[in-house]
Write a structure and sequence with these properties.
By secondary structure, the chain is an alpha+beta fold. Helix content is about 30%, strand content about 15%. The structure holds FE2/S2 (inorganic) cluster (2 copies). The site of one FE2/S2 (inorganic) cluster has 12 residues, from loops.
Length: about 230
């Protein structure tokens, strides 16, 4: 095998992953909160008025409040994001990244933010079956797409899925900060290639950096997951 075939190009990974370049710097408070953090049974439970922070149980109640308490002020547009099979109605500023909305608006903290500039892979989620960096995606462009986060991998209260179990069995995490990103990339790979070779795993994970340097066991885990 030539040397080149073993080399994995991060540029190639980025191209394959179909990433949207042009990330967002975010900093505003969330306007809407969703309380269930597991992303499976999650449903929007509170609508928070962005003007006076009063909370309501339904969108209609918030609209009624707007009409009476803030007459003449337009209610911001709500967008619907489908995350782990659940539709969330959220207010999204145009410049918010998907990573920001997942974490700070919806409380899905399993998606980690490392570099926030498309270099480390910690924020990887699956969008319409492709692994993508959530820090580089504009949340406002995600309507109509199926987004999956690490919270959606296992059945809550039941067992880990086979990729998670393989990571556990191979002790493929250390501090764990980057693990959810690796898991999502590995999950996407296993779904399109049920038994990937080591080279294919290396390619699929080449967009991920792990400060703990646990790459060997991570690759072993994904190969093992494919064999199950
Ligand atoms: S946080 Fe998105 S790639 Fe690093
Ligand atoms: S396990 Fe610690 S940074 Fe990857």
């Amino acid at each position: 095998m030539s040397k080149e075939t073993n080399l994995v190009s991060r540029r190639e990974f980025l191209k394959d992953a179909g990433l949207v370049v042009g990330g967002a710097t975010v900093g505003s408070a969330a306007l809407l909160s969703a309380c269930k953090n597991n992303g499976k049974s999650g449903s929007v439970t509170k609508y928070v008025c962005p003007l006076d922070s009063k909370e309501f149980d339904s969108l209609q109640a918030l609209k009624d409040h707007y009409a009476s308490a803030h007459e003449g002020v337009d209610l911001p547009d709500f967008k619907t994001l489908n995350i782990n099979g659940v539709d969330y109605s959220v207010i999204i500023n145009d410049y918010w990244s998907l990573a920001w909305v997942l974490r700070e608006t919806l409380g899905l903290y399993g998606t980690k933010v490392g570099c926030d500039m498309g270099q480390c892979g910690a924020c990887t989620v699956i969008v319409d079956d492709k692994p993508m960096y959530a820090c580089l995606l504009f949340a406002c462009e995600m309507e109509g797409k199926k987004i999956r986060t690490v919270e959606g991998l296992a059945d809550y209260g039941n067992k880990l899925n086979k990729v998670q179990q393989a990571f556990h069995d191979a002790n493929a995490t250390q501090c764990g900060f980057c693990t959810s990103g690796f898991l999502m990339a590995a999950q996407a790979l296993i779904e399109r290639n049920s038994s990937p070779s080591e080279d294919e795993v290396r390619h699929a994970l080449s967009g991920h950096l792990c400060m703990c340097q646990n790459f060997k066991k991570t690759i072993e885990a994904v190969v093992a997951a494919g064999g199950k």
